[in-house]
Amino acid sequence: NIGIADDNFIVDRKRTERICDILIKEGYNRKVDWVCAVRADGVDEPLLKKMRAAGCRCFCVGIETGSQRLMNVLKKHLKLEKVVEGVRMMRKAGIKVRGTFLLGIPTETEEETLQTIRFANKLRLDFAKFNLITPYPGTELWEIAKERGLVGEDVWSRLIPGIGFTEAEPVFVPKGRNAQELKAKQRRAVKTFYVRPRPIWNLVANIRSFSNFNRHFYAAKLLLKS
């Protein structure tokens, strides 16, 4: 398996098509499966058909939220209905979809967090990841966090990933919310998504080694304990 390190592999459609054509011509589509990141509103059926023929087996899609208001806060320039349609076309093309979501977006209410959880389940994704939003230097969120005294000289040590989702401590918490409540919602999001037949089967089907099995087993224990 190959993962393409590009935040939006299809941003240049002609380049994407050329790469797919080369993979097909050289026969790599029969030897290598690959995954890439795309925007949900950037795909269409002809492009998906070509990418699938070239060996693409999974998309990583930054969906972020199930609230259109928060999508606008993030300046994502993405409509929820476009997400629904994009994921539908990806699945129809036979490409698995991994959706990523953000919890704790500035001004996010508890109800909007629940909207995101419900939206993730509605989309029939194969995999999902729910991240607590993190301010990085150079972003607007970083400036907001700095004004509120949430980040300082130790920021890089705080950004180092933990050993699992239950260990992650929110760096940014919207006003009126608290870190423990956000973490509880994150655990709820993971549990409600993965304790269903389709996601469980996808995880089992993707076990390729004993170490891979161990990671899934450890994650399952954390999930059931939460």
TrEMBL record:
GO terms for molecular function: catalytic activity; iron-sulfur cluster binding; metal ion binding. Residues 1-166 form the Radical SAM core domain. Signal peptide: none annotated. The keyword Iron-sulfur applies. The keyword Flavoprotein does not apply. Transmembrane segments: none annotated. One of its GO terms (cellular component) is cytosol. Its cofactor is [4Fe-4S] cluster. Keywords: Iron, Iron-sulfur, Metal-binding, S-adenosyl-L-methionine. This is Radical SAM core domain-containing protein.
